[in-house]
Amino acid sequence: MHLLETRGLTHTYRGDVRALEGVNFVAGRKSRIAIIGPNGAGKSTLFKHFNGILKPTSGEVLIRGEPITNENVREVRKFVGIVFQNPDDQIFSPTVEQDIAFGPINLGLDEATVAHRVEEALRLLGIEGLRERVPHHLSGGEKKRVAIAGILAMEPQVLVLDEPTAGLDPQGVADLVRFVNRLPEEYGMTVIFSTHHLDLVAEMADYVYVMDKGRVVGSGTVGEVFARPELLARTRLDVPPIPKLIRSLQENDVAIDMAYTYEDAKKAFLEAYARRR
């Protein structure tokens, strides 16, 4: 039984705009899954089905084997937490501390439990110093961390991040990558995210879905997807610089192992250099 699954998921907006068509998707426990594709591919619409914000036109969304219904949607939203691309869409309380506490309070938790969850979320995101700040006076990166903290305080099993690195500076991106990569092993969470920065996919994902025009047009491990440049080109994407460079070297008879991350590429180059000496 999958943690989260869609079967033949289709969604049509008013005006007969088909945003999703026959999407089949699965996520297991402690997974790191990237969903990539051009603007308008349907990624955000898909995410809004994961916890019942949108209802399918046809098909279904299953959480631990059970379809989302009006009766269980409240429980589903405890289980699947979504952080939207623009943090201003979900930050509205007078202070950071109150904003993070909003979700746990609405779950009906007692005061001590709410306080504990808020402290843990502040600590995890490294924003203890922001607790009394007004959220809308924060930087974009700080707002992003507050939005994530607010969802984490609800202790979901699935964390969905829509373009999580949008608006972050390089240090903010690096901090987010390190944080996200801790969640599956340390906290047992499944992380699903979308991004236009394909160089981050190898850093943050174990499995990749490629979407275009509301459909899943390809899927596989990072290596399997990046080994299909024609698929990426067809969806107006490109192979990231590191595997593209190594593939070019291999095609020019340089004996070097494929790599997708900076650290793996560094190791591959050093080993290739050692072999040539």
From TrEMBL:
InterPro entries: AAA+_ATPase (IPR003593), ABC_transporter-like_ATP-bd (IPR003439), ABC_transporter-like_CS (IPR017871), ABC_transpr_CbiO/EcfA_su (IPR015856), Co_trans_ATP-bd (IPR005876), ECF_ABC_transporter_ATP-bd (IPR050095). It comes from the Archaea. The keyword 4Fe-4S does not apply. Its main location: membrane. Coiled coil: none annotated. It holds the Pfam family ABC_tran. One of its GO terms (molecular function) is ATP binding. This is ABC transporter ATP-binding protein. It comes from Methanoculleus chikugoensis. It is found in: Cell membrane. The lineage of its organism: Archaea, Methanobacteriati, Methanobacteriota, Stenosarchaea group, Methanomicrobia. Belongs to the ABC transporter superfamily. Residues 4-238 form the ABC transporter domain. It is a peripheral membrane protein.
